[in-house]
Amino acid sequence: MTEGNHGLESGGEVVPAEAEAAEVIGVRHGMFGVHGSGDTSGYGGLVRTVAMPGATPRPYGGWFDEAADTLERVLPSYGDAVEGVVIDRGEMTIHVRREKVVEVLQALRDDPLLRFEMSLGVSGVHYPDDTDRELHAVYHLRSLTHNRQLRVEVAVPDADPHIPTATSVYPTNDWHERETYDFFGIIFDGHPALTRILMPDDWPGHPQRKDYPLGGIPVEYKGAEIPPPDQRRVYS
Amino acid sequence: MGLEEKLPSGVLLTTVEQVAGYMRKSSLWPATFGLACCAIEMMSSGGPRYDLGRFGMEVFRASPRQADLMVVAGRVSQKMAPVLRQIYDQMPNPKWVLSMGVCASSGGMFNNYAIVQGVDHVVPVDIYLPGCPPRPEMLMDAILKLHDQIQHSKLGANRERQVEEREQIALTALPTSAMKGLLR
Amino acid sequence: MSTDNITFGSAGAAASGPVADAYAGSRETTEGTVYTVTGADWDTVVRGVSGGRQEHVVVNMGPQHPSTHGVLRLILELDGENVIEARCGVGYLHTGIEKNLEFRSWTQGVTFVTRMDYLAPLFNETAYCLAVEKLLGITDQIPERASVIRVMLMELNRISSHLVAIATGGMELGALTAMIFGFRERELILDVFELVTGLRMNHAFIRPGGVAQDLPPGAVDQIAETVKKLKSRLTDTEKLLVDNGIWMGRTVGIGYLNLSGAVALGLTGPILRSTGLAWDLRKMQPYCGYETYEFDVPTQTTSDSYGRFLIRMAEMQESLKIVEQCLDRLTPGPVMVEDKKIAWPAQLALGSDGMGNSLDHIRQIMGESMEALIHHFKLVTEGFHVPAGQVYQAIESPRGELGVHIVSDGGTRPYRVHYREPSFTNLQAVAAMCEGGQLADVVVAVASIDPVMGGVDR
To answer: Which DSSP symbol is given to A100?
Structure first.
């Protein structure tokens, strides 16, 4: 475990970009996924906020500090571009604003001290409760020269899901961005051919969003019928 | 036994249905429709250890025009379903369909938006083979049962009568959720 | 085959009109006339195209094809025998596994994940379990025996996956004996898998926290014997294909993609190693104790299909070395993490009606320990909770870098699981490798990429 990988403690030092508390992505009520009546367990009144680890204050520990410093030096608009850096479980995540994502990726690829030559693709995550930041696009980068990896995360609202394409910097993101568009509806501006890749070309909706149903059918057994997985009781 | 013993040797009595059934089942050529994991088990059963060649089936014809049996091996996604139907339509009669694995038979463990919940939504299936993936021995068992079915299938007017009987049985059968008793 | 049904013509000259066959007809699209041919009727295409304006023919090597390594659709624009443009159509095996995982507990996820890249199921499982363990923070507490078993099974899986790659590659090029050899060797490995995990393929054996159960008695001997047999039998394929004039004639210089192209396209695995860069995650970012094993990373410098084939042959030998080292390292011990709130509780045993919970375990939870009963119940129904956060874990699968990105929201179910499959990224190289070459080389190039469509489409 590297040092400095705990979330924001109380107070703390000044963070380069604006400090944010642990990013709340939802609130859960009750214990067993049953709402309304039917839950007699007594846990029905439970209210839990679900929060992802928040921005970490400096020093980050290990090579993370050096990387952040280099990026700050190379990128004149660092304060603008970077919303925060999260160090969690030995990994570094840089949260970037969408307008600057191509700049940041270019700097990460080209600077000799950073040299993240290989992009491991883009994927999306949908946080429906995180208003105005519902869709996250996550870029994983790998540096072959320095043998390190890094994550860059961009958050966009549902109402305006546009992110500039990274294919000019990393051609490998071509199909990955098509897949993220296919499953989440994030539109990558400037992509050479942004069409559906895994679903049929005329499929309505974006399947991996949280508001898209799993789409199963009830299964018949002898003497019973089991509902599809997304309509069963959930213990989480 | 009976009439055959009184004839000179070298003469065999049988029915057209039995001869036709025997010919058809002995060289049933499968069409390559391997999709996912079951396809690998299908290839293994064509391999040296579980040899499908002993049943006359090691020639997996790539062109459906030359194939008799379509082994739907693997999960059929919504994008693949029209292709499946087109390949089935391109096969000449007589043709049979073996749905291999639970994903082809009923959607399997993937009860979701992307998988057709059973290829019998798309093509008529003659024999279902459960398993995830079914062992090559299970596949051979299903193929042999299908051979049995082919051997005993009727022709002409008998066939029409057989089809009508089967339809009547299916129409009056209990739905699965109303059945009782053990799984077998 | 084609009828004389002259309807509206759009292909210029009336040398051949549209074909009106129900299954092999032609239809008009915005790009021109599309002919469906199914054998013995290529002359309709020739007549149609020769009368028309275009010189290039767009051929669809459709999803059902014996040589496209699964349900891959290749759309090729041909000028005679030369490929002008090559595009891949994927998604014919899309199963929605990633979305399904959000509705299952963390341990149940293993059974789904194992079916993505179905030729290397243990790699999918290991990547997922390593990522979950990273999120839980118990990576150091995984018992050593579990790690050794994981490495051993993974390396055996690597051998069986490369065998299928070479076997199907050989079959697609017409070397059918390679297929017979490959599948024969693979049966030996599948026997080992069946003995250890219970299944030949898609074993849900590697669970978060360790492995599902310990090796059965006699497994070590059988594995040692298998290794010995494989060592001698792998030379059969070697003698058949390595330095074989016809094989070399078909694969040398085909599918060329140099280092900068490979890195730009994000290719990993044998393709990257064939360009000369010895990049192997087992050495660079070791996991499961790989840094303690002695093995080499085979590389070639030719960047072509033959080089990748040689790398796969050499990697099989290296994997055998690792398996031997694993067998030496197996010391008795637990195979599941000690933390009872995470460890999968049940032990399986073979009873009169098949495989089920062992009677010892049932006696313990029903008669002896209340806590064990509670743990069993809660772990099987609810599952364990994983603290919120996200993690990326990559391992070296036979095709390249298999990465898992897991987001947890603190619950018993994954919030989002995304697999960075090597086949998905590697298939993007088809256009770079095939355009400018000949039609027959497309098959060779795709075979050397070795995509598994279950991984591409997930």
So the answer is: G
| The one-letter amino acid at A4 | G
As a whole number of angstroms, the distance between CA A139 and CA A169 comes to 12
pLDDT average, residue stretch A112-139: 89
| Residue B33 contacts residue B72 (beta carbons within 8 Å) | yes
| Chain C touched by A196 (CB under 8 Å) | yes
DSSP calls for A75-89: -TTHHHHEEEEEEET
Query: Distance between CA atoms of B160 and B173, rounded to whole angstroms?
Result: 20
User: What letter does residue A69 receive in the DSSP assignment?
Assistant: H
8 Å CB contact of B133 and C201: yes
Q: C74, C56, C71: which is closest to C434 by C-alpha?
A: C74
Which SS3 state, helix, strand or coil, does residue A9 take?
Answer: coil
pLDDT band of A20, cuts 50, 70, 90: very low
* Other C-beta atoms lying within 10 Å of the C-beta of residue B161: 11
Which residues from chain B sit within 8 angstroms of residue A204, using beta carbons? none
Q: Tell me if B175 and A220 make a contact (CB, 8 A cut-off).
A: yes
SS3 B30: strand
State CA C298 to chain mean position distance: 20
pLDDT value of position C11: 33
Phi, psi of C203 (to 5 degrees): -80, 130
- Number of CB atoms found within 10 A of residue C171's CB: 20
Distance CA A115, CA C76 (A): 36
A223 close to B (CB below 8 A): yes
Query: B70 with B31: CB under 8 angstroms?
Result: yes
What is the C-alpha radius of gyration for chain B, rounded to an integer number of angstroms? Answer: 19
Please list every residue in chain C whose beta carbon sits closer than 8 Å to the beta carbon of residue A122.
none
Q: Is B87 close to C64, i.e. CB distance below 8 A?
A: yes
The residue in chain B having the minimum alpha-carbon distance to the alpha carbon of residue C71 is B35
Q: How far apart are CA C239 and CA C177, in angstroms?
A: 12
Nearest CA to C171 out of B87, B41, B62 is that of B62
* pLDDT above 90: residue A177: yes
Q: What is the pLDDT of residue C420?
A: 93
SS3 annotation, A115-174: CCCEEEEEEEEECCCCCCCCEEEEEEEEECCCCEEEEEEEEECCCCCEEECCCCCCCCHH
Cis ω for the linkage preceding A59 (within 30 of 0): yes
B43 → closest Cβ in C95, C183, C190: C183
pLDDT, position C22: 66
Spatial distance between the Cα atoms of A120 and A123, rounded to a whole number of angstroms: 10
Q: Quick check: B83 contacting A, CB < 8 Å?
A: no
Tokens of C225: 């014997």
Shortest alpha-carbon distance between residue C258 and chain B (Å) = 31
Q: Which of residues 19-38 of A touch B (CB under 8 A)?
A: none
Q: Which of residues 68-97 of A touch C (CB under 8 A)?
A: 88-91, 93
Compute the distance between CA of residue C205 and CA of residue C187 in angstroms, rounded to an integer: 19
What does pTM read for this prediction?
A: 0.88
Beta strand C26-29 with B127-129 is unpaired
Q: Decide if the complex's ipTM is over 0.90.
A: no
Residue ranges, chain C, pLDDT below 50: 1-16
Element (H, E) at B82: helix B81-90
B80-104 pLDDT, tens digit each: 999 999 889 989 988 999 999 999 9
Q: Which residues pair with C403 in a beta bridge?
A: C394, C420
Q: Is C381 helix (H, G, I), strand (E, B) or coil?
A: helix
Do C35 and C43 touch, CB atoms closer than 8 A? no
- Better-scored residue on pLDDT, C322 or B1: C322
Distance, CA of C94 to CA of B114 (rounded, Å): 6
Q: What kind and span of H or E run contains C420? A: strand C416-420
Q: How far apart are CA C11 and CA C55, in angstroms?
A: 12
